[in-house]
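Entry 14. Two folds queued back to back today. First construct below, sequence then structure tokens.
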Amino acid sequence: MTETDETLPESRRAHVLASATKVFLAYGFARATMDDIARAAEMSRPAIYQYFKNKTEIYRSIASVMLDQSVDQAKAAFAQPGPFANRMERAVDVSIISMIASFSTTPHGAEFLDMKSGLSDLITAWRGQLLDLMTMAIDAEAKRTGVDLGAKGFTAEMLAESLMDRLDGIKARTIDPEAQRQASRVQICLIDQALQA
């Protein structure tokens, strides 16, 4: 498929982001320069500036794309057939655990993931989207099983929030993806039990 005039800027922008991701993971954000990104993208530095004003904007764009993709993967996981707990585990894995693991195993992945101060608005929005998806999935399962969560002292949002809080704690405690999966599975099982009539 050939690129049209309309898709060319977007594909070049995506190419710059992919190249910059490799540079940030190889050198770290602080050491990476716009020259490094231009070389990796096989473009001139002035050409890079046609798409991004600086490396912080590139970093934010990478994070935005990554977070949007994780939400899309969570949506796809929830849309799959199967038991609620399996779908929730899959959604948590693809949208959070596996995404973080793919970066944390690289030399500067921890730095790449830890630049929260410049991403707090993006991370807040991302967390809110995941929380909404989890809440909807819990609510749908409660309706399917005929469980009155209010009678048990819960709301779907409370259960989703408890899972997100647990995931935040797990990420702070260990970077081992398998340990994160096991710990999140426990919380998901507790939610699943609350959803049983």
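Second construct, same run, same settings:
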Amino acid sequence: MARFAHTVTVAALDRSWFEEAAGALVDLLDASREGPGGSVLLADGRAVEGLRLLKGRHLRPGARYGEVPAEPERAGAGDSPATLASGAGDSPAANQAVVLRAWRPSHSVEVESLVVEDGMPLKVGLRLSGPRRPSSLTHSL
């Protein structure tokens, strides 16, 4: 098995900006709901562009979200959004998804991003403790 190592240097975010942004995002998503066809609807009824619930229940552990094109180019007539997101279809959307591992806005939010690029899978996990007033952000590869 091949192993790769890479170092990325990032500048620190302003803590107050990050806390405000994280809290606003969590509040926005917490007030959202599932709409027709797996669309994610904000509290005011607008759909989140390009985001669909592909599997599971909205904001529940195991929910899988991704982008499914309105008209998949090479997908078969019987391919459902869930089939495309699972990797069984030929659509680019089949190669990426976000799985919600935990949604407890007062305690923690945990997501896992699954991406396949040029046949190489990559899984990245993020956990935000105290999402409305973040105390820590951890990641895993």
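Quick look at the second one. The chain has one domain: 15-69+80-140. Residues 15-69+80-140 form one domain.
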